Amino acid sequence: MTPSWLDAARQVNVPTVAAALGRKVARGRLSPCPACGAEKVGHDDRRGPVGVTLDGKGWRCHRCQASGDALDLVGRALTGKRTRELAGDHAALAAIRDWYSARGWCAPAPSTSPHARPLRRVPPPPPPPSEPEPSYPEPGEVVSLWEACSRVDPTGTDLPPVALSVAFLLSRRHLWAPAVADLDLARVLPNPEAHPFPHWLPTRWWPTWALAVPTWTPDGRMGGFRFRRVDGGRKRKELPHLGRSGGLVLACPVALDLLRGTPDRAVWDGTVLLVEGVPDFMTWATVPGVPRPAVFGIFQGAWTAEHAARIPDGTRVAVGTHNDPQGNHYADALAATLAPRCPCFRVRP
Description:
There is one protein chain. This protein has helices at residues 4-9, 14-20, 70-79, 90-102, 139-148, 160-171, 177-182, 253-259, 278-285, 305-309, 325-338, and strands spanning 24-26, 29-31, 50-52, 59-61, 67-68, 150-151, 187-188, 211-216, 222-228, 238-240, 250-251, 268-276, 292-298, 316-320, 344-346. Strand 8 (211-216) and strand 9 form a beta hairpin. It has a 5-stranded antiparallel beta sheet. With 349 residues, it is α+β, with helices and mostly antiparallel strands. The two termini are 47 Å apart. Mean pLDDT is 83; it is low at 113-122. It is globular and about 80 Å long. Helix 2 packs parallel to helix 3 (70-79) and helix 3 packs across helix 4. The protein folds into 2 domains: 4-102, DNA Primase, Chain A; 139-346, no CATH class.
């Protein structure tokens, strides 16, 4: 039977425990990682590397892929191991219990003294305040901004952001740039002086990250954008919009029909391809030929069980995420949402 102190300790969520350990807690992220010590996701992404689940009960580092619950977070901090790996190590478990009991989050270890008096149980404090989340973009604002964007015209234009965007597309090997315009996969942000940007889109992003690629909800509605750098700079090549960061995927027209429940069998070849990031998405989405696969582009938190539910039973699903630890983690998570309804197989992008 699980010791009662562990049951009590598990009631304290990850953000509360992380703050007590001295970690930075902001917008569902923790820093530094208790396993690898990373303080940010990457050189160009300064967010905390450890993501917290929506229910606050779990965490995962996007650098080293270490994961666990709040108890594992304390175990890593105090002993270098997850608490679940310490079975039989009574000294280490006692140290973890003492850490929790010192904060009133579980009962202290029983004393051998006959005069010991039980400590008064103190309920866990509320989670520490975090930075306020920016509000989600309104659907009308997203569509209005998209309609104000310029079409990507590979035939040539004197508008600098459009020309830079076309040059970026043409520089991508195997990407058929004219099809980006034909399929309306991406557009170019307007000058904010001509079309006021909504509050969630900083004007400083124009024209550096001018290429806007729309993202879609599970029922096929436009929910936001990914913004791609087009000026050749090496830092921060891609930006998500502020506000809603999960539950939105990139989707080609065939994939959109699938989300909307209106697949055209004359156009769709009956397969689904899941790839990672904007360049791979546009490369596969512009491969010529009919019928063609339904191509989805994913990134952290994009693909959800609701998206997976739109895929008909028996559909062959190819997962083409990057061949690295994060890409392999994505592949496993994607396959888990579709198995056992759909046969999934791994392909290399």
